[in-house]
Each structure stands twice: as structure tokens, then as C-alpha cells.
Specification:
Layout: H1 3-10, E1 18-23, H2 38-41, H3 45-53, E2 55-60, H4 70-77, H5 89-96, E3 105-115, E4 121-123, H6 131-141, E5 150-157, E6 160-166, H7 194-214, E7 222-229, H8 237-241, E8 245-248, H9 252-260, E9 264-265, H10 272-282, E10 288-293, H11 295-301, H12 305-317, H13 319-323, E11 329-333, E12 350-356, H14 369-372, E13 378-381, H15 385-392
Helix pairs in contact: 5-9, 11-12
């Protein structure tokens, strides 16, 4: 029996409400040995109060030592084993912009990037261009034609876009063309099997044409592609957990992931305050609320320690409004760590706090990596966080006689 079958057997109906607040890339590192992380440097009186009222620990997104992408990181928080459900980012981005992915489609996430005269990447995100520029560049790429394969190019925001390859016999076992580092050229696509090799040929043709079209459009003068994926089969949160969930997210990729697991995706505005107001308006309509906050991650990827501290403090400021709704279970965590020092996702466990009336509180008084290491939850795999929330919300019965 796997964990989802167990949950189906044990779940009980209830009217209790669960809130999951995800500060993307929350975990960090000190700039110097013995120093403080971004979270420990931030002034977070309201998160500290959550820690005193609840129980904390460190979540491991996938397994110890494994650095997760945003997809696996969130799947774990939603109660799905990221090793069992390997979902490419392309599908998540496509669903996030409401692109209807069909059975003949392979979707991929695209990045506009900057290359020098030798074709070497100097900026993986092209300086984070405006969404308006992203739209304009995508319109140029929509002219690309590939024999035997339909190509759809759609903007997401800033440097991100979606490419969907549609045709018979396409596979999704294709490597990323993004080397994930500057100072390198984009990688050629290769397929792991015959069907995926057909996709890889289309990808390489697309990238070659894109390079010619964009060559005079620096800083958005090249593209990289990653997260090739077909539409997966996955049980929804309603089917597995008996929840009525809603996603309150701004960025399309996270909307796509939420939609994939059966959450209702709503228009949430453009700011954190807008998202909290949306939660307040919908409070009587749902029993599971996922709110995603992006900027703790993007500032970490930019290597801006001070800005990440500021974004954490901004996140802290809305906690009283969420607690005023009196959720039966409140969880605050991240999908992974994004230390400013590394300018990337990392394998480090993520600070987590769970607040409920049935918590067995611990001695921790501040929300930070060092303190959470001593918390009552210990270090645990993120996929077990939702079952813990269900238990504290009175939604799981007893196992066995």
C-alpha cells in the first residue's frame, strides 16, 4: 500500500481549513562562516510568533543531497512523491498560461538569454526583460516553421516563455539545452530514444532558427529550453486527500502545477496584499489554500542578500492577516532553498513551521535555519507535510484496530 492509498482509507470528512504559505526559495546560507542566513537576518516578529505557537523543523524537498527544481519542490509540499511523479516544467508552464496540451504535444519551458559574439551565454535570464519585450520576442519566434512538426510559442513573463512541439511519435526524454551556467554555449538537444530523438531534431532546428531571428536583439538574443514533458497521469488532491483546494499564485508556472493536482486556480492580482485579500474573499468557499510568494526565490537567484532579506520581511508583514482568518492549520515553508551566496537552488533543508491547536510545541522561539534544526518536527521529507496537516486538522482516522 502506498501513502496515497493509505490516506484514502484513513481520511475523514471535516470542515476544518488548512493554509499553506510557500515563500519560494526560502532557505539560505550565511555569507560568511558563523554568520546569519537571509531568514535569520530578517526582522520577522510574526513568523517568530508562529514558531512560538506551533512546532517547527526542516523539510527535505526530495531526498538528502538532492537539489530540487520548483516542480518537484512543490509536488512534495502537495503530498506527492517527487520521485514517483517526475513532471517536466514545460507542462507546468503551459498549463499556467492556459495552453491546452494535447496527446501529441511535448511542452518545454523557454528562457531568453544573452550570448556574446562567440555564442557563449553571459546572462541566463537576459537581464530579466519586461514582459512586454518577452511578448515582442515571442511574436518573432512564432514565425519559425519546422517540417513535420507544429510549433507554438507563447509568452509567460519576463524572460520566460513556452514552446509546444506537436506531432506524431514525439517523445519527451530530451535533455535541457540550458547548461545552467554562464560562460558556456547552449547545449544541443539529444533524445534518449527514437521518439525523443525526433523531438530533439525539431528542438535543434527551432534553436538554430531562433538564433538567426534574435541575433540583433540583445540582451534577448538567444534562447534555452528545459523541462520537456508530455501530460502526465496524476490523482488530484480531491481524489487523494478529500480536499477542496484553491491556488492563489501570481506566476503561471505555479498556477500550472496547482491545476495539475486539481486545485482551482483563481485570479490573485499582482501583489502579496492582493493575494491575501483574495484568500479573505474565498475563505468560505474552500478548505485548502495554497498561497505562493515568488520574490524570496528571484532575489536569491540574483545573488542579492539584502533584497532577499527585504522580501522575507515583506512576507512576514502579511502573516497577521492570514492568522486573523483562524485557519485550523497554518503551514509556512518553502519549496526549496535558494541561497543568495549560491545564486541558485540548493539541496539545503527548508525551514518549516506548523501551527495548530493540537501542536506539541517545542522550545524554538525564532524562525530560522539554526533554530528550526532544534524543532519538534526534526528533518522530514516534504511529502509528509500534508498528511501531518490533515492529522492536525482532524481529517485522518486511526490506522488499524
Amino acid at each position: 500500500m502506498n501513502i496515497h492509498d493509505l490516506i484514502r482509507d484513513l481520511r475523514e470528512p471535516a470542515t476544518t481549513k488548512i493554509v499553506l504559505l510557500v515563500a519560494d526559495g526560502l532557505g539560505g546560507l550565511p555569507l560568511e562562516p558563523g554568520g546569519k542566513t537571509e531568514l535569520e537576518s530578517a526582522r520577522t516578529p510574526h513568523l517568530d510568533a508562529c514558531v512560538r505557537d506551533g512546532v517547527c523543523g526542516l523539510s527535505v524537498p526530495v531526498l538528502p543531497g538532492i537539489t530540487p527544481g520548483s516542480g518537484p519542490g512543490h509536488l512534495g509540499l502537495f503530498g506527492y512523491d517527487p520521485l514517483q511523479y517526475r513532471i517536466g516544467r514545460g507542462i507546468l508552464e503551459a498549463l499556467g498560461i492556459h495552453f491546452e496540451v494535447g496527446p501529441r504535444d511535448v511542452a518545454t519551458r523557454g528562457n531568453f538569454c544573452t550570448v556574446d559574439g562567440a555564442g557563449v551565454i553571459t546572462d541566463r535570464r537576459a537581464g530579466r526583460p519586461t514582459t512586454e519585450r518577452c511578448v515582442a520576442m515571442c511574436q518573432k519566434l512564432q514565425k519559425i516553421r519546422i517540417e513535420g512538426v507544429e510549433v507554438f510559442v507563447e509568452p509567460v513573463r519576463e524572460h520566460r516563455f513556452v514552446v509546444v512541439f506537436r506531432g506524431d511519435g514525439l517523445g519527451d526524454a530530451v535533455n535541457d539545452t540550458d547548461p545552467q551556467l554562464t560562460g558556456h554555449k547552449p547545449l544541443p538537444a539529444k533524445g534518449a530514444d527514437a521518439a525523443s530523438e525526433k523531438t530533439a531534431r525539431a528542438v535543434n532546428d527551432f534553436v538554430m532558427q531562433a538564433a538567426k531571428i534574435l541575433k540583433d536583439d540583445a540582451p534577448t538574443n538567444m534562447v534555452t529550453l528545459r523541462g520537456f514533458a508530455r501530460y502526465p497521469k496524476i490523482g488530484t488532491m480531491q481524489e487523494v486527500y478529500g480536499l477542496k483546494p484553491v491556488a492563489i499564485a501570481v506566476y503561471p508556472m505555479y498556477k500550472g502545477l496547482a491545476q495539475l493536482v486539481g486545485m482551482k486556480v483563481v485570479e490573485a492580482g499582482s501583489s502579496l496584499d492582493d493575494q491575501v485579500k483574495t484568500m479573505e474573499k474565498l475563505w468560505n468557499d474552500y478548505d485548502f489554500f495554497f498561497l505562493h510568494y515568488k520574490y524570496t526565490d528571484s532575489t536569491g537567484e540574483d545573488g542579492n542578500f539584502a533584497a532577499k532579506v527585504e522580501m522575507i520581511e515583506r512576507f512576514d508583514s502579511v502573516i497577521p492577516k492570514v492568522r486573523a482568518l483562524k485557519p485550523d492549520v497554518l503551514i509556512v515553508t518553502g519549496d526549496h532553498s535558494t541561497p543568495s551566496k549560491m545564486k541558485s537552488h540548493s539541496c539545503h533543508p527548508v525551514p518549516t513551521v506548523l501551527v495548530a491547536k493540537t501542536c506539541r510545541t517545542d522550545p524554538v522561539t525564532e524562525f530560522g535555519e539554526s533554530q528550526c534544526l532544534r524543532g519538534g518536527l526534526g528533518q522530514f521529507q516534504a511529502m509528509y507535510l500534508l498528511p501531518m496537516a490533515l492529522a492536525h486538522a482532524g481529517r485522518l482516522g486511526k490506522f488499524g484496530a
